[in-house]
Amino acid sequence: MPLPRRFHVEQPPEQLHMNIALGLSELCSILGIDGSPADDRTFAGIAPLDHAGPDDIAFFFRPEFAAAARTTRAGLVITSTALAEHLPTAVLRLFHPDPEEAMATLLEYLALSTKPQGGAIHHTASIAPSSTIAKSARIGAGTVIGEHVHIGDDVEIGAHVVIEDGVAIGERTVIESGAVIRSGTVIGKRCRIGSGAIIGSEGFGFIERNGRYRHLYHLGNVIIGDDVEVGANTCVDRGLLGATVIEDGVKIDNLVHIAHNVVIGEHTAIAAQAGIAGSTHVGKRNRIGGQAGLTGHISTCDDVTIGAQSGVSKSITQPGEYSGTPAVPLQRRLRSEAALRQLVELVPIIESLAHKFAPKPTDQLRDEQE
User: Fold this and answer.
1) Distance from the Cα of residue 20 to its chain's centroid
2) CB count in 10 Å sphere of residue 129
3) pTM of the model as a whole
4) How far is CA 153 from the centre of its chain?
5) CA nearest neighbour of 22 among 55, 59, 48
Protein backbone atom coordinates (compact mmCIF):
# COMPACT_ATOMS: atom_id res chain seq x y z
CA MET A 1 0.00 0.00 0.00
CA PRO A 2 1.62 3.33 -1.02
CA LEU A 3 2.14 5.94 1.66
CA PRO A 4 -0.01 9.09 1.50
CA ARG A 5 1.37 11.97 -0.53
CA ARG A 6 1.72 13.95 2.67
CA PHE A 7 4.55 11.77 3.92
CA HIS A 8 6.46 9.47 1.61
CA VAL A 9 9.98 8.15 1.36
CA GLU A 10 12.29 8.09 -1.60
CA GLN A 11 15.84 6.77 -1.82
CA PRO A 12 18.47 9.20 -3.15
CA PRO A 13 22.03 7.88 -3.54
CA GLU A 14 23.25 9.45 -0.29
CA GLN A 15 20.54 8.80 2.29
CA LEU A 16 16.90 8.22 3.09
CA HIS A 17 15.00 11.50 2.81
CA MET A 18 11.56 12.35 4.22
CA ASN A 19 9.21 14.45 2.10
CA ILE A 20 6.46 16.15 4.07
CA ALA A 21 5.01 19.34 2.48
CA LEU A 22 4.62 21.19 5.80
CA GLY A 23 3.94 24.90 6.16
CA LEU A 24 5.65 27.04 8.79
CA SER A 25 2.41 28.08 10.49
CA GLU A 26 1.28 24.44 10.69
CA LEU A 27 4.68 23.48 12.09
CA CYS A 28 4.35 26.12 14.82
CA SER A 29 0.93 24.77 15.70
CA ILE A 30 2.23 21.19 15.94
CA LEU A 31 5.12 22.24 18.20
CA GLY A 32 3.04 24.57 20.38
CA ILE A 33 4.98 27.68 19.37
CA ASP A 34 2.94 30.89 19.70
CA GLY A 35 2.77 33.52 17.00
CA SER A 36 1.97 33.73 13.30
CA PRO A 37 5.09 33.74 11.13
CA ALA A 38 5.24 36.45 8.47
CA ASP A 39 6.88 34.02 6.03
CA ASP A 40 4.56 31.01 5.85
CA ARG A 41 6.74 29.07 3.46
CA THR A 42 6.34 25.34 2.92
CA PHE A 43 9.11 22.83 3.58
CA ALA A 44 9.49 19.65 1.61
CA GLY A 45 11.57 17.45 3.89
CA ILE A 46 13.31 16.72 7.17
CA ALA A 47 17.03 15.95 7.16
CA PRO A 48 20.14 16.03 9.37
CA LEU A 49 22.00 19.34 9.56
CA ASP A 50 24.81 18.19 7.28
CA HIS A 51 22.48 16.80 4.57
CA ALA A 52 19.63 19.32 4.66
CA GLY A 53 18.89 21.52 1.66
CA PRO A 54 17.06 24.83 1.27
CA ASP A 55 13.64 23.16 1.39
CA ASP A 56 14.40 21.00 4.45
CA ILE A 57 13.79 21.31 8.18
CA ALA A 58 16.69 20.36 10.47
CA PHE A 59 17.10 20.20 14.24
CA PHE A 60 20.04 21.49 16.28
CA PHE A 61 19.91 20.53 19.96
CA ARG A 62 23.41 19.50 21.04
CA PRO A 63 26.71 21.43 21.04
CA GLU A 64 28.39 18.36 19.51
CA PHE A 65 26.62 19.20 16.24
CA ALA A 66 28.01 22.74 16.09
CA ALA A 67 30.41 21.97 13.22
CA ALA A 68 27.56 20.69 11.06
CA ALA A 69 25.40 23.65 12.10
CA ARG A 70 27.99 26.19 10.90
CA THR A 71 27.82 24.88 7.34
CA THR A 72 24.22 23.73 7.12
CA ARG A 73 22.16 24.61 4.05
CA ALA A 74 18.83 23.86 5.75
CA GLY A 75 15.91 26.11 4.97
CA LEU A 76 14.79 26.06 8.61
CA VAL A 77 16.59 24.99 11.78
CA ILE A 78 14.65 24.36 14.97
CA THR A 79 17.00 25.13 17.85
CA SER A 80 17.39 26.94 21.17
CA THR A 81 18.50 30.52 21.66
CA ALA A 82 21.70 29.27 23.31
CA LEU A 83 22.80 27.34 20.22
CA ALA A 84 21.61 29.73 17.51
CA GLU A 85 24.96 31.57 17.35
CA HIS A 86 26.50 28.59 15.54
CA LEU A 87 24.11 28.85 12.57
CA PRO A 88 24.83 30.76 9.36
CA THR A 89 23.21 34.19 9.27
CA ALA A 90 21.03 33.36 6.27
CA VAL A 91 19.43 30.31 7.89
CA LEU A 92 15.87 30.75 9.16
CA ARG A 93 15.58 29.74 12.85
CA LEU A 94 12.61 28.60 14.89
CA PHE A 95 13.27 28.74 18.61
CA HIS A 96 12.00 26.08 20.99
CA PRO A 97 12.94 25.68 24.68
CA ASP A 98 13.69 21.98 24.07
CA PRO A 99 14.47 21.38 20.38
CA GLU A 100 15.12 17.67 20.91
CA GLU A 101 11.62 17.27 22.33
CA ALA A 102 10.33 19.33 19.41
CA MET A 103 11.93 16.80 17.05
CA ALA A 104 10.26 13.93 18.93
CA THR A 105 6.89 15.72 18.73
CA LEU A 106 7.16 16.33 14.98
CA LEU A 107 8.33 12.80 14.19
CA GLU A 108 5.48 11.36 16.25
CA TYR A 109 2.99 13.60 14.47
CA LEU A 110 4.24 12.54 11.05
CA ALA A 111 4.37 8.86 11.96
CA LEU A 112 0.83 8.83 13.34
CA SER A 113 -0.54 10.80 10.39
CA THR A 114 0.37 7.92 8.07
CA LYS A 115 -1.47 5.24 10.03
CA PRO A 116 -4.67 3.89 8.52
CA GLN A 117 -7.77 4.74 10.48
CA GLY A 118 -10.28 2.17 11.69
CA GLY A 119 -10.02 -1.51 12.47
CA ALA A 120 -9.22 -4.23 9.97
CA ILE A 121 -8.44 -7.93 10.08
CA HIS A 122 -6.53 -9.45 7.18
CA HIS A 123 -8.38 -12.35 5.58
CA THR A 124 -5.40 -14.69 6.14
CA ALA A 125 -5.32 -14.13 9.91
CA SER A 126 -6.46 -17.05 12.07
CA ILE A 127 -8.39 -16.05 15.20
CA ALA A 128 -9.94 -18.46 17.69
CA PRO A 129 -13.68 -17.84 18.17
CA SER A 130 -13.34 -17.41 21.96
CA SER A 131 -11.03 -14.40 21.59
CA THR A 132 -12.21 -10.81 21.87
CA ILE A 133 -10.85 -8.32 19.34
CA ALA A 134 -11.73 -4.62 19.60
CA LYS A 135 -13.37 -3.22 16.47
CA SER A 136 -10.63 -0.60 16.13
CA ALA A 137 -7.79 -3.15 16.25
CA ARG A 138 -5.78 -4.00 13.14
CA ILE A 139 -4.54 -7.56 12.57
CA GLY A 140 -1.93 -8.28 9.89
CA ALA A 141 -1.58 -11.06 7.36
CA GLY A 142 -0.86 -14.57 8.57
CA THR A 143 -1.22 -13.73 12.25
CA VAL A 144 -2.44 -16.52 14.54
CA ILE A 145 -4.44 -15.70 17.69
CA GLY A 146 -5.29 -18.45 20.17
CA GLU A 147 -8.18 -19.04 22.53
CA HIS A 148 -9.47 -16.53 25.11
CA VAL A 149 -7.23 -13.69 23.93
CA HIS A 150 -8.29 -10.10 24.63
CA ILE A 151 -7.04 -7.36 22.29
CA GLY A 152 -7.93 -3.78 23.23
CA ASP A 153 -8.84 -0.66 21.28
CA ASP A 154 -6.52 0.61 18.55
CA VAL A 155 -4.07 -2.26 18.97
CA GLU A 156 -1.89 -2.89 15.90
CA ILE A 157 -0.61 -6.39 15.22
CA GLY A 158 1.73 -6.90 12.30
CA ALA A 159 2.06 -9.80 9.90
CA HIS A 160 2.88 -13.35 11.03
CA VAL A 161 2.56 -12.67 14.74
CA VAL A 162 1.72 -15.59 17.04
CA ILE A 163 -0.42 -14.81 20.09
CA GLU A 164 -1.09 -17.86 22.22
CA ASP A 165 -4.00 -18.68 24.53
CA GLY A 166 -5.03 -16.39 27.35
CA VAL A 167 -3.02 -13.31 26.31
CA ALA A 168 -4.32 -9.81 27.12
CA ILE A 169 -3.07 -6.75 25.19
CA GLY A 170 -3.99 -3.21 26.25
CA GLU A 171 -5.16 -0.36 24.06
CA ARG A 172 -2.88 1.34 21.49
CA THR A 173 -0.16 -1.29 21.85
CA VAL A 174 1.82 -2.27 18.75
CA ILE A 175 3.06 -5.81 18.16
CA GLU A 176 5.44 -5.78 15.20
CA SER A 177 5.70 -8.49 12.59
CA GLY A 178 7.12 -11.87 13.56
CA ALA A 179 6.79 -11.44 17.32
CA VAL A 180 5.62 -14.33 19.49
CA ILE A 181 3.49 -13.69 22.59
CA ARG A 182 3.30 -16.90 24.62
CA SER A 183 0.32 -18.07 26.67
CA GLY A 184 -0.88 -16.06 29.66
CA THR A 185 1.16 -12.95 28.91
CA VAL A 186 -0.35 -9.62 29.97
CA ILE A 187 0.75 -6.50 28.05
CA GLY A 188 -0.37 -3.04 29.12
CA LYS A 189 -1.38 0.08 27.22
CA ARG A 190 0.69 1.97 24.62
CA CYS A 191 3.45 -0.65 24.50
CA ARG A 192 5.59 -1.62 21.53
CA ILE A 193 6.94 -5.13 21.03
CA GLY A 194 9.60 -5.33 18.30
CA SER A 195 9.83 -7.75 15.42
CA GLY A 196 11.07 -11.19 16.36
CA ALA A 197 10.70 -10.62 20.10
CA ILE A 198 9.49 -13.55 22.18
CA ILE A 199 7.53 -12.72 25.30
CA GLY A 200 6.84 -15.58 27.70
CA SER A 201 9.30 -18.19 26.45
CA GLU A 202 10.31 -21.07 28.72
CA GLY A 203 12.96 -20.12 31.27
CA PHE A 204 16.36 -21.80 31.50
CA GLY A 205 15.45 -23.98 34.45
CA PHE A 206 16.73 -27.48 35.22
CA ILE A 207 17.53 -29.67 38.18
CA GLU A 208 20.58 -31.93 38.14
CA ARG A 209 20.29 -35.49 39.36
CA ASN A 210 22.91 -38.22 38.87
CA GLY A 211 24.79 -36.16 36.30
CA ARG A 212 21.73 -35.47 34.17
CA TYR A 213 19.54 -32.41 33.77
CA ARG A 214 15.78 -32.56 34.19
CA HIS A 215 13.67 -29.84 32.62
CA LEU A 216 11.54 -27.67 34.88
CA TYR A 217 8.25 -26.69 33.28
CA HIS A 218 7.62 -22.99 33.78
CA LEU A 219 3.97 -22.39 34.62
CA GLY A 220 4.14 -18.68 35.40
CA ASN A 221 3.72 -15.81 32.96
CA VAL A 222 5.01 -12.38 31.95
CA ILE A 223 3.33 -9.14 33.03
CA ILE A 224 4.28 -5.98 31.14
CA GLY A 225 3.08 -2.58 32.34
CA ASP A 226 2.07 0.51 30.35
CA ASP A 227 4.32 2.47 27.97
CA VAL A 228 6.92 -0.31 27.74
CA GLU A 229 9.07 -0.87 24.65
CA VAL A 230 10.75 -4.20 23.92
CA GLY A 231 13.22 -4.26 21.04
CA ALA A 232 13.58 -6.67 18.14
CA ASN A 233 14.68 -10.23 18.93
CA THR A 234 14.59 -9.66 22.67
CA CYS A 235 13.47 -12.59 24.84
CA VAL A 236 11.57 -12.24 28.10
CA ASP A 237 11.14 -15.61 29.83
CA ARG A 238 8.03 -16.55 31.76
CA GLY A 239 8.19 -17.16 35.51
CA LEU A 240 8.75 -20.62 36.90
CA LEU A 241 6.02 -20.00 39.47
CA GLY A 242 4.62 -16.49 39.50
CA ALA A 243 5.49 -13.79 36.99
CA THR A 244 8.37 -12.09 35.27
CA VAL A 245 7.46 -8.40 35.62
CA ILE A 246 8.39 -5.44 33.42
CA GLU A 247 7.00 -2.32 35.10
CA ASP A 248 5.63 0.88 33.54
CA GLY A 249 7.83 2.93 31.23
CA VAL A 250 10.67 0.42 30.84
CA LYS A 251 12.64 0.63 27.58
CA ILE A 252 14.48 -2.50 26.42
CA ASP A 253 16.75 -2.48 23.37
CA ASN A 254 17.20 -5.21 20.75
CA LEU A 255 18.78 -8.57 21.59
CA VAL A 256 18.32 -8.40 25.36
CA HIS A 257 17.60 -11.44 27.51
CA ILE A 258 15.39 -11.18 30.59
CA ALA A 259 15.29 -14.49 32.49
CA HIS A 260 12.50 -16.09 34.50
CA ASN A 261 11.04 -14.27 37.52
CA VAL A 262 13.08 -11.11 36.95
CA VAL A 263 11.47 -7.82 38.00
CA ILE A 264 12.48 -4.66 36.11
CA GLY A 265 11.55 -1.46 37.97
CA GLU A 266 9.68 1.35 36.27
CA HIS A 267 11.39 3.71 33.82
CA THR A 268 14.53 1.58 33.58
CA ALA A 269 16.43 1.50 30.26
CA ILE A 270 18.42 -1.54 29.11
CA ALA A 271 20.75 -1.38 26.09
CA ALA A 272 21.40 -4.09 23.51
CA GLN A 273 22.89 -7.49 24.34
CA ALA A 274 22.50 -7.08 28.09
CA GLY A 275 21.44 -10.14 30.05
CA ILE A 276 19.70 -10.42 33.42
CA ALA A 277 19.68 -13.83 35.09
CA GLY A 278 16.77 -15.42 36.91
CA SER A 279 15.02 -13.93 39.95
CA THR A 280 17.05 -10.71 39.91
CA HIS A 281 15.21 -7.51 40.88
CA VAL A 282 16.26 -4.32 39.09
CA GLY A 283 15.26 -1.07 40.77
CA LYS A 284 13.46 1.93 39.35
CA ARG A 285 15.16 4.32 36.92
CA ASN A 286 18.17 2.06 36.40
CA ARG A 287 20.26 2.40 33.25
CA ILE A 288 22.02 -0.76 32.09
CA GLY A 289 24.64 -0.45 29.35
CA GLY A 290 25.12 -2.70 26.35
CA GLN A 291 26.48 -6.22 26.95
CA ALA A 292 26.24 -5.81 30.72
CA GLY A 293 25.37 -8.92 32.69
CA LEU A 294 23.63 -9.35 36.03
CA THR A 295 23.84 -12.68 37.81
CA GLY A 296 20.78 -14.30 39.32
CA HIS A 297 19.10 -13.75 42.70
CA ILE A 298 20.54 -10.27 43.31
CA SER A 299 18.97 -6.82 43.34
CA THR A 300 19.81 -3.24 42.48
CA CYS A 301 18.36 -0.22 44.25
CA ASP A 302 16.74 2.72 42.46
CA ASP A 303 18.76 5.18 40.34
CA VAL A 304 21.68 2.91 39.45
CA THR A 305 23.71 3.20 36.23
CA ILE A 306 25.65 0.12 35.10
CA GLY A 307 28.28 0.69 32.42
CA ALA A 308 28.59 -1.26 29.19
CA GLN A 309 30.13 -4.76 29.47
CA SER A 310 30.00 -4.64 33.26
CA GLY A 311 29.49 -7.81 35.25
CA VAL A 312 27.30 -7.45 38.34
CA SER A 313 27.74 -10.40 40.70
CA LYS A 314 26.45 -8.88 43.95
CA SER A 315 23.51 -6.72 44.94
CA ILE A 316 23.90 -2.95 44.59
CA THR A 317 22.45 -1.07 47.55
CA GLN A 318 23.57 2.52 46.88
CA PRO A 319 22.52 4.72 43.93
CA GLY A 320 25.28 5.77 41.56
CA GLU A 321 27.40 4.70 38.60
CA TYR A 322 29.02 1.27 38.50
CA SER A 323 31.43 -0.24 36.01
CA GLY A 324 33.80 -3.15 35.39
CA THR A 325 33.82 -6.87 36.20
CA PRO A 326 33.08 -7.33 38.97
CA ALA A 327 31.16 -4.06 38.92
CA VAL A 328 32.36 -1.45 41.43
CA PRO A 329 31.57 2.26 41.85
CA LEU A 330 32.83 4.09 38.77
CA GLN A 331 35.16 6.48 40.62
CA ARG A 332 36.78 3.58 42.44
CA ARG A 333 37.37 1.79 39.15
CA LEU A 334 38.88 4.92 37.58
CA ARG A 335 41.26 5.30 40.54
CA SER A 336 42.26 1.64 40.26
CA GLU A 337 42.98 1.99 36.54
CA ALA A 338 45.04 5.14 37.16
CA ALA A 339 47.06 3.33 39.84
CA LEU A 340 47.60 0.38 37.51
CA ARG A 341 48.89 2.66 34.76
CA GLN A 342 51.32 4.23 37.22
CA LEU A 343 52.44 0.77 38.32
CA VAL A 344 53.14 -0.23 34.71
CA GLU A 345 55.26 2.90 34.29
CA LEU A 346 57.29 1.86 37.35
CA VAL A 347 58.17 -1.57 35.95
CA PRO A 348 61.20 -0.48 33.85
CA ILE A 349 62.51 1.58 36.80
CA ILE A 350 62.20 -1.42 39.12
CA GLU A 351 63.91 -3.66 36.56
CA SER A 352 66.75 -1.16 36.21
CA LEU A 353 67.24 -0.97 39.99
CA ALA A 354 67.14 -4.75 40.26
CA HIS A 355 69.82 -5.05 37.63
CA LYS A 356 71.93 -2.32 39.25
CA PHE A 357 71.88 -3.83 42.72
CA ALA A 358 71.88 -7.48 41.76
CA PRO A 359 74.77 -9.39 43.43
CA LYS A 360 77.78 -9.87 41.15
CA PRO A 361 79.49 -13.29 40.73
CA THR A 362 82.59 -12.00 42.56
CA ASP A 363 80.42 -10.98 45.51
CA GLN A 364 78.89 -14.44 45.66
CA LEU A 365 82.36 -16.11 45.55
CA ARG A 366 83.62 -13.87 48.35
CA ASP A 367 80.60 -14.73 50.48
CA GLU A 368 81.24 -18.45 49.96
CA GLN A 369 84.94 -18.14 50.93
CA GLU A 370 84.08 -16.27 54.10
Assistant:
1) 27
2) 5
3) 0.83
4) 25
5) 55
Instruction: Give the torsion through C-alpha atoms of 253, 257, 260, 262, to 10 deg.
Output: -50
Question: What are φ and ψ of residue 135, in 5° steps?
Answer: -60, -30
> What residues contact residue 216 under an 8 Å CB cut-off, 6+ apart?
203, 205, 206, 207, 240
Give the CA dihedral 18, 192, 282, 323, nearest 10 degrees. -20
Sheet holding 144-145, edge to edge: 126-127, 144-145, 162-163, 180-181, 198-201, 235-237, 257-258, 275-276, 293-294, 311-312
Q: Is 149 exposed, middle or buried (0-12, 13-18, 19+ CB in 10 A)?
A: buried
As a whole number of angstroms, the distance between CA 271 and CA 253 comes to 5
Measured between alpha carbons, how far is 273 from 257 in angstroms, rounded to an integer?
Answer: 7
Q: What is the C-alpha separation between 231 and 197, in angstroms, rounded? A: 7
Divide the 370 residues of the chain into consecutive groups of 10 and give the mean pLDDT of each group.
Answer: 43 54 90 78 91 94 96 95 94 94 94 83 97 96 98 97 98 98 98 98 94 95 98 98 97 98 98 97 98 97 97 96 89 77 80 77 58
Kindly name the residue from 86, 257, 260, 281 that is annotated as catalytic.
260
Put the strands of the sheet holding 42-46 in their side by side order: 8-10, 17-23, 42-46, 56-60, 76-79, 92-95
The answer to whether residue 260 is catalytic is yes
Ranges of beta strands (E only) in 64-115 are 76-79, 92-95
- Largest pairwise CA distance in the chain: 106
What are phi and psi for residue 92, nearest 5 degrees?
Answer: -70, 135
Q: DSSP 3-state helix, strand, coil percentages of the chain (rounded to 5)?
A: 20, 30, 50
What phi and psi values does residue 10 have, to the nearest 5 degrees?
-125, 165
Handedness of CA 116, 122, 125, 131 (dihedral sign): positive
